[in-house]
């Protein structure tokens, strides 16, 4: 019986060189992604710090977001983004979760094979299309019909459009999370005499809550970062408002409206730097959401 040497177990030198090459390529890709992310953050911070150090803070708390006039009311675009996100989640969360529960717990395999790809295709609808849909259908047919005096472009229409955009996202991720729950938990619940709806609500959803929270955070981040739907349907008015039935402005729409012509050039007052300041705010908000979600998911995983 021949003995195996350590060298033969490790493989020949050519194979080792290939493995090192592949490892180096993967390491280079990971390093490159980190460097690119760091450069993006650095560029945001550099230009945003210029805005922070040179702006007159009285204009930051002024009435309205009109950067070409030197008025940078942050609360105007922040409240607009908050209203759109809340409306979007009020539309997307129940419909998306309901779709996920049906696909995971009630739909037959044939029905699931048909509906799941359709749902994923809907997630690829261009946001421009949904923006015009919200402006030309949602607003006149759903909002203006029940609320007299409402303008065609308003924050509510934009929020509904963003909600429609995020429904497939919530449904797909939530359905995957529920499908990953072991069948043994369902069988144990049925063995105790529980009905399907009770099993879905009190067994499956708690067991899949980490994935459901992840779906919600991804959807919120998507809603906050959405640009074209709100740019088209919200009206783009920089006047401060807390009424969703009035035109308004979000952080992303403000950046899109502002990043044109001479506003893209340094030296045009602080308009150019305000773009990066708003971008940094978006980055911080998204980062905080992800950190909170990660901490919550870790606690829930320890519990379940």
Description:
With 304 residues, the protein is mostly helical. The protein has two domains: 6-54; 58-303, Orthogonal Bundle (MetI-like fold). It has 13 helices and two strands; from the N terminus they run H-H-H-E-E-H-H-H-H-H-H-H-H-H-H. The chain has helices at 6-10, 13-54, 57-60, 74-106, 109-122, 127-143, 155-179, 183-191, 196-207, 209-225, 228-233, 251-258, 271-303; strands at 65-66, 71-72. Strands 1-2 form a two-stranded antiparallel sheet. Strand 1 and strand 2 form a beta hairpin. Helix 4 runs antiparallel to helix 10, helix 5 (109-122) runs antiparallel to helix 7 and helix 7 (155-179) runs antiparallel to helix 10 (209-225). The radius of gyration is 25 Å and the shape is globular. Mean pLDDT is 84; it is low at 261-265.
- Spatial order of the strands in the main sheet? 1-2
What does the radius of gyration come to?
25 Å
How large is the count of helical segments? 13
Query: Got a strand count?
Result: 2
> In angstroms, what separates the terminal alpha carbons?
51 Å
CATH architecture heading of the largest domain: Orthogonal Bundle
- Highest-level CATH class of the largest domain: Mainly Alpha
The CATH topology assignment of the largest domain is MetI-like fold
Strand proportion, as a percent range, falls in: under 5%
Name of the CATH superfamily of the largest domain: MetI-like
Instruction: Please trace the helix and strand order, writing H or E for each element.
Output: HHHEEHHHHHHHHHH
Helix content: over 70%
Oligomer: single chain
Which blocks of ≥5 consecutive residues have pLDDT under 50? 261-265
Main beta sheet: 2 strands, antiparallel
Total tally of structural domains = 2
């Amino acid at each position: 019986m021949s003995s195996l040497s350590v060298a033969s177990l490790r493989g020949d030198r050519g194979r080792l060189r290939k493995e090192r090459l592949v490892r180096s390529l993967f390491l280079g890709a990971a390093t490159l992604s980190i460097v690119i992310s760091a450069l993006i953050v650095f560029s945001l911070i550099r230009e945003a710090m210029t805005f922070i150090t040179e702006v007159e803070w009285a204009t930051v708390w002024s009435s309205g977001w009109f950067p070409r006039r030197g008025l940078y009311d942050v609360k105007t675009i922040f409240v607009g983004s908050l209203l759109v996100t809340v409306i979007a989640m009020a539309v997307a969360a129940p419909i998306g979760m309901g779709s996920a529960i049906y696909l995971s717990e009630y739909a037959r395999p044939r029905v699931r094979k048909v509906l799941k790809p359709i749902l994923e295709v809907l997630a690829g609808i261009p946001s421009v299309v949904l923006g015009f849909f919200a402006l030309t259908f949602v607003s006149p047919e759903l909002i203006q019909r029940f609320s007299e005096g409402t303008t065609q472009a308003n924050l509510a229409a934009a929020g509904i459009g963003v909600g429609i955009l995020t429904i497939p996202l919530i449904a797909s991720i939530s359905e995957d999370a529920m499908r990953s729950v072991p069948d043994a938990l369902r069988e144990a619940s049925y063995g105790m005499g529980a009905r399907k709806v009770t099993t879905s609500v009190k067994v499956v959803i708690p067991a899949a809550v980490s994935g459901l929270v992840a779906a919600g955070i991804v959807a919120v981040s998507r809603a906050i970062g959405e640009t074209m739907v709100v740019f088209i349907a919200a009206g783009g008015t920089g006047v401060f408002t807390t009424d969703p039935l009035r035109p308004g402005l979000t952080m992303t729409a403000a950046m899109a409206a502002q990043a044109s012509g001479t506003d893209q050039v340094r030296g045009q007052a602080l308009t150019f730097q305000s773009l990066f300041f708003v971008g940094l705010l978006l980055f911080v908000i998204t980062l905080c959401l992800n950190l909170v979600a990660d901490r919550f998911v870790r606690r829930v995983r320890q519990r379940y």
